[in-house]
Write a structure and sequence with these properties.
By secondary structure, the protein is of the alpha/beta class. The protein has one domain (2-94, 151-257): P-loop containing nucleotide triphosphate hydrolases (Rossmann fold, 3-Layer(aba) Sandwich), CATH 3.40.50. Helix content is 36%, strand content 23%. The protein is built from ten helices and ten strands. The chain has helices spanning 45-53, 75-78, 99-107, 121-132, 151-164, 181-198, 209-214, 233-237, 241-252, 259-264; strands at residues 2-11, 19-29, 34-39, 60-65, 68-69, 82-85, 169-173, 202-205, 218-223, 226-232. Helix 6 (181-198) links the parallel strand 7 (169-173) and strand 8. The longest helix is centred in the C-terminal third of the chain and has 18 residues, at 181-198. The chain starts with a strand and ends with a helix.
Length: 265
């Protein structure tokens, strides 16, 4: 479903501020994989997601989604393939539009736009049903502006929007990092629910080692723009924070001392 071949990216090349973020990165995701991504600050996690989403062009290598080479396609042309939830709950919704209007926009992702605008009765019924499945009472607030929702409610709505039209790939970019622990846990539960029900191929970047271990069927760890660990199956099910830290030290030749990761552990 997703293949990255020898992807490299250097920011500000040829200057004193040059920073190589991805170094010949290779990654393949099979249909239905739910892969969690962990690593220290500057490891290349979010850069990898931005490269996949088309936020910038890569210097070399190729990116393929479901057999289509999207390496040189613009960000908006990739939108029909990709659903994304960002760290900031404010980024995934239009705050001045109502919940149902946001969902209507999401339902039209990848479709040909016309001058006609309106929400059909059948759409409204579907939106209500999908909102009800979140268990947050949002189905009774469909005409409420998204900007009036709490951070957790907005992330739940963004999750629903990102998966309303089944994407070939769902990107979750530290999407619980800005939430309090209880809300973050609920949003992760909803993420699992939505991914499982839709059989969505998913990449979830997280700074929390426990979350990386407990969610998904596969875990990769990045360091200096490369994947140094790729763990799945029974090995992943047996993982603990301590064994993961030990594996990182052996693979990278150094200890993982990133504050955010250790706090999240």
């Amino acid at each position: 479903m997703l293949q990255l071949k020898n992807v490299s990216k250097t920011f500000n090349p040829g200057t004193i501020n040059a920073k190589t973020a991805l170094r010949g990165l290779n990654l393949t995701l099979n249909d239905g994989d739910f892969v969690t991504v962990i690593g220290g600050n500057g490891a290349g996690k979010s850069t990898m997601l931005n490269a996949i989403a088309g936020v910038f062009e890569v210097d070399s290598g190729s990116i393929t989604i479901d057999g289509a080479d999207i390496t040189r396609r613009s960000e908006h042309k990739r939108a029909k393939y990709i659903g994304r939830v960002f760290q900031d709950p404010m980024m995934g919704t239009a705050p001045t539009m109502t919940i149902e209007e946001n969902l209507a926009l999401a339902a039209r992702r990848g479709s040909r736009r016309t001058l006609a605008w309106g929400i059909k009765k059948s759409e409204r019924a579907e939106f209500r049903e999908r909102l009800e499945s979140l268990g947050l009472g949002l189905e009774d607030r469909m005409t409420t502006r998204a900007g009036l929702l709490s951070g957790g409610q907005r992330q739940a709505l963004t999750l629903l929007m990102a998966s309303l039209v089944k994407p070939r790939l769902l990107l979750l970019d530290e999407h619980t990092a800005a939430l309090d622990p209880a809300t973050a846990e609920r949003v992760l539960e909803l993420s699992d629910q939505i991914v499982e029900e839709g059989r969505l191929t998913t990449l979830m970047v997280t700074h929390n080692m426990r979350d990386a271990i407990e969610h998904g069927n596969r875990l990769i760890m990045m360091n200096e723009g490369q994947i140094i660990l790729d763990i799945s199956g029974e090995e992943k099910r047996r993982l603990t924070v301590d064994t993961l830290l030990a594996k990182f030290s052996r693979a990278a030749g150094t200890e993982l001392v990133t504050d955010r990761v250790l706090i999240g552990a």
